[in-house]
Design brief:
The protein is mainly alpha-helical. It is built from 5 helices and 2 strands; from the N terminus they run ααβααβα.
């Protein structure tokens, strides 16, 4: 059956800074109207981890740029894409240090075996996010 949950924004949005409003709009679209996320501007990322030159930064930007809604990639495949095919474990470390999960979609990184692997928000949350994306992508295909 179709879920009867509705998406709504909490009060107080008028007091938010522009980057927070962008973040809120992006997250609202992600959960409620996923097809819109591609057309929305990405919120500005000012976290120090995303500013300095490092393999972690390379991995996170590669993930954000190359792994689309409803897709999954293995730790090893992401290591390859980020430029170091032997760094699957380092990719796991990058996922653990991701300062903005969901927006930088570390939940889309899974084990080569197809198992979901770990997730900072808990494995049930990772499975839910992957299912949400799969279901929404299937809806868009019709």
């Amino acid at each position: 059956t179709e879920s009867s949950a509705t998406c709504e924004v909490c009060e107080g949005a008028e007091e938010m800074t522009e980057p927070l409003k962008q973040c809120m709009a992006w997250l609202h679209a992600y959960f409620c109207e996923p097809a819109r996320t591609a057309s929305l501007p990405m919120p500005a990322f000012h976290h120090p981890l995303l500013q300095r030159d490092s393999f972690t930064r390379q991995v996170l930007w590669t993930l954000l740029r190359d792994v689309k809604f409803g897709e999954a990639i293995s730790y090893k495949q992401l290591a390859d894409l980020a430029g170091n095919s032997r760094a699957a474990r380092a990719v796991g470390g990058a996922m653990r240090s991701n300062p903005i999960p969901i927006i930088i979609p570390c939940h889309r990184v899974i084990c080569s075996s197809g198992q979901t692997g770990n997730y900072g928000g808990g494995n049930l949350m990772k499975e839910w996010l992957l299912s949400h994306e799969k279901l929404q992508k299937e809806k868009l295909a019709y």
